[in-house]
Design brief:
With 253 residues, the protein is of the alpha/beta class. The chain contains 9 helices and 7 strands, in the order βαβαβαβαβααβαααβ. It has one domain: NAD(P)-binding Rossmann-like Domain (Rossmann fold), CATH 3.40.50.720. A 7-stranded parallel sheet has the order 3-2-1-4-5-6-7, with helices on both faces. The longest helix is centred in the middle third of the chain and has 22 residues. The structure holds NADP nicotinamide-adenine-dinucleotide phosphate (NAP). NADP nicotinamide-adenine-dinucleotide phosphate (NAP) binds next to α1, β2, α4 and α7. The site of NADP nicotinamide-adenine-dinucleotide phosphate (NAP) has 33 residues, from α1, β2, α4 and α7.
Length: 253
């Protein structure tokens, strides 16, 4: 009988914002599929250490590396520490992100810059540095966007604008990096039950109830719903997909 090789065996992945929520689940699922994983975090060292401990206890490989993606110097250090840990990179998941809803009258430059610096500039600079470690055969970049870029909920102008930018950047970079064999896709969740979604007050709110009425599968997503799709986008199973924006929201459009 031939042996079964895990899908991502020999691959190295970096997941930004992997100390909790969707990023933590993606890190664990990529590791379970055989990848060595860099678990990036900004402030929650204990959360990142816990993710690493779970991966190593299951026989996988992972390290936690701090780095605030809104700080260009942190990104350079994150990528050089990734190189020191695993020597290369095949998969980048740009997951680190913040969401702050606000009606038009409450929008301030601080509200704008905080979200754009992390969700957009951080994603761009991380990708710029990370692809330097990709092998000549290419790799996969997965940008975590959101269904909000299509749904455009009220009181979300800045956050939704960041995710619209993520969709646009995904298209642009798929064209720029395609000749290098690097695929770039956006994975756009609907509402997902995470620490961040709880902290934002989404879980149990009218916003969540209203989302269910627009969701054919009729429930809130769980981090593993998204992580399983991330494994697909990271693996050769999606080798003919690039520049795509996959809505992962139980059918919410
Ligand atoms: N949950 C949802 O309903 C939902 C829906 C659609 C899209 N999304 C997107 O999915 C992604 C993850 O969301 P989530 O709900 O899992 O969030 P979460 O539970 O709040 O977790 C956010 C993660 O991002 C990290 N992070 C925040 N700012 C960072 C920075 N400047 N540099 C590096 N890491 C940073 C946090 O690290 P520390 O804890 O160390 O600070 C944490 O690991 C975001 O891009 C979000 O926009 C979420």
């Amino acid at each position: 009988m031939s042996t079964i090789t895990p899908k991502l065996s020999g691959k190295v992945a970096l997941v930004t914002g992997a100390s909790k929520g969707i990023g933590a689940s993606i890190a664990k699922h990529l590791a379970a599929a055989g990848a060595s994983v860099v678990v990036n975090y900004a402030s929650s060292k204990s959360g990142a250490d816990k993710v690493v401990a779970e991966i190593t206890a299951a026989g996988g490989k992972a390290v936690a590396i701090r780095g605030d993606v809104a700080q260009p110097a942190d990104i350079v250090r994150l990528i050089s520490e990734t190189k020191a840990a695993f020597g290369k990179l095949d998969i980048l998941v740009n997951n680190a992100g913040v969401y702050e809803f606000a009606p038009l009258e409450a929008i301030t430059p601080e509200h704008f810059h905080r979200q754009f610096n992390i969700n957009v500039l951080g994603l761009l600079l991380t990708t710029r540095e990370a692809v330097k470690l990709f092998p000549a055969t290419g790799g996969s970049v997965i940008n975590i966007g959101s269904v909000v870029s299509a749904v455009t909920p009220p009181a979300s102008a800045v956050y939704t604008a960041t995710k619209g930018a993520v969709d646009a950047i995904t298209g642009v970079l798929s064209k720029e990096l395609g000749p290098k064999g690097i695929r770039v896709n956006a994975l756009n969740p609907g509402i997902v039950e995470t620490e961040g979604a709880h902290a934002a007050g989404f879980i149990g709110s009218d916003f969540e109830k209203n989302a269910h009425t627009q969701t054919p599968l009729g429930r809130t997503g769980q981090p593993q719903d998204i992580a399983r799709i991330a494994v697909f986008l990271a693996s050769d199973d999606s080798g003919w997909l690039t520049g795509e924006k996959l809505r992962a929201g139980g059918g919410m459009h």
